[in-house]
Amino acid sequence: MNTLISKKAPNFTASAVLNGKEIVSNFTLEQFKGKKYVLLFFYPKDFTFVCPTEIYAFQEKIQDFEMRNVQIIAVSTDTEQSHWAWLQMPKEKGGIHGVTYPIVSDINKTISHNYGVLSGNWICNDNHEEWKATGELIAYRGLFLIDQDGFIRHFLINDFPLGRNVHEAIRMIDALQYYEKSGEVCPANWTKGKKAIKASHSGIENYFSS
Question: Taking every annotated instance into account, which residue ranges of this chain make up the domain Thioredoxin (predicted)?
């Protein structure tokens, strides 16, 4: 299977809701290249159960992402009107009111397809006259960390029932930024402030002997 790791993140131009209220038709990923890191995450559907817990979890840590110069972007295959309506509903009624980062509409399912997170499939009958979808054509819980040059440095994809850990996303951002700054690589369970490894035989020897 092909992987997107270390490859340029597929660009897109799509409708999105900004700041929880403004619908725009020309939101692009490219606008952040050279300016910010991007944490791009996909979720299956609006008005569901696990999805709002994740969406709020990212919002609750928005300042942690901003201080790391990271732009959060959410994507699902719902329409921008559905996103907008969900954003107007209060949390206690199942809505996501108060979320400020962009939520993109992938109604044509091309973004999810290009990032390899689209569930379901298209099949054609034997006469090649009719196409049918097998399963729902919605996004799995994909998460992609994109560096300032527009390359994907980390990703994970969860099945529908499995919510993501926002703290792990922040840890991966810290690891990438530490590596970019110091040139040292980050070992298992590394967190900000812990010892890293110089990429050499002496570096690994010093790491294990300390």
Answer: 3-178
